[in-house]
Amino acid sequence: MNLRLLLLEDDAVSRAFLTDALAALPARVDAAETIARASDLVLDRPHDLWLIDAHLPDGDGVDALTALQHLSPGVPALAITAELHRDGFDQLCAAGFLEVLQKPIAIAALHAAVQRALTGTTAFPATPATGKLPVWDEQRALAALGGRRESLQALRALFLDELPHQSEEVLAACAANDADAARAVLHQLKAGCGFVGATRLLAAVEALSRSPLDGAQRRLFEFAVADQLATIEVTGDREA
Length: 240
Known about the structure:
Layout: E1 4-8, H1 12-23, E2 28-32, H2 35-44, E3 49-53, E4 55-56, E5 59-60, H3 61-71, E6 77-81, H4 86-95, E7 99-102, H5 107-119, H6 138-144, H7 149-175, H8 179-196, H9 199-210, H10 215-230
Parallel strand pairs: 1-2, 1-3, 3-6, 6-7
Antiparallel strand pairs: 4-5
């Protein structure tokens, strides 16, 4: 068992649950309650991944990640939070967290998130400019259509017209715990995202397809849909 993880979580119940769940990967888990203690552990030994709570006694998740990265650059990190709001999600993504996990989280969803982080297949890889993928990928979309901008604009108009209904179908299936139905609509949406270069939404669709009943992934999907639909009010395409 070579995998070693750092868990920074101040709540005793959450820390006990997450420690046991992560140990079952299997992995060796170093648990800390404060940024100060986590810093000592990072200095003492290397870790493959950090899992950091967004609210801590001596700072927040962004403070923790900044402090730990200063001591050991390049280690991937997942954020954990009991509340997932848009502003908080954006701040955590911009700080460099690969994904934001919402408590309570099922063991299977936690294990899947760790595997994604370790293999580089996370939902929202950070970019220096915004911490998130662009809403539209102009270059990729035009390349797929042979540079025909008018065709791209027409496809995007159709895509944005269909998106609200598709999103409602996905969320209804998720709320009904019907993973198969959710995946069926997400599969259709994935193809559309690829054709029109909806990069950020595509990442959210792929992540939700892997875990349709994961509440955090559902919220990230909703955020991405909102970003995509906001482009309707903008003349031409944009990147956010």
